[in-house]
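protien #1 (seq + structre)
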Amino acid sequence: MSSLLVVGADHLGNITDKLMNFGFKEIIHLDGRKVNMVKREIPEHIDMIFVMTDYINHNLAKVIKQKAKNQEKPIYFVKRSWSSIHQVIQRMETEKKAN
């Protein structure tokens, strides 16, 4: 894991530090507040996407999901809480070990 795009939430607080402790080298955060966010493309170097479901509108979530699918990027829908994010990271690590 090296680069992560986080969509939603006004600020991430200490979540950024905790994600870096799990091995993410680069974290790009888009708050999703502006209408033109749906026009933004997902950078090619991004390895995965987290969408904060409690801080994003349905249209932007739908657009990001489609763009991730088109670029074959893994996308995870999480709440803006470390426990929710940590569960997804643990699940990813378990799946990685199984393969």
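ok now protien #2
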Amino acid sequence: MPHRTEHPHVVVHPPALDGSRRVTADGETLGTAGHEDDVAEILRLADLYVTDVADDDFVEWQGGGPDDWPGLSAPHEQ
């Protein structure tokens, strides 16, 4: 198994008003996620392979963990 060398600081930011969360690496925006799986795909597209974004120390979750996607899981009342 290859040993990790230095990786960028990856942050999943607190949910926006619509529930989406911005994903950054070293301050650069990589994308916007609507689910934990989106975070993994955004990192994969940036060539930052993480096997488990929920439990890996490589990813810092701010404003809630990988299960916190307010506004996206509940239907909006009109």
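Confidence is low (pLDDT under 50) at residues 74-78.
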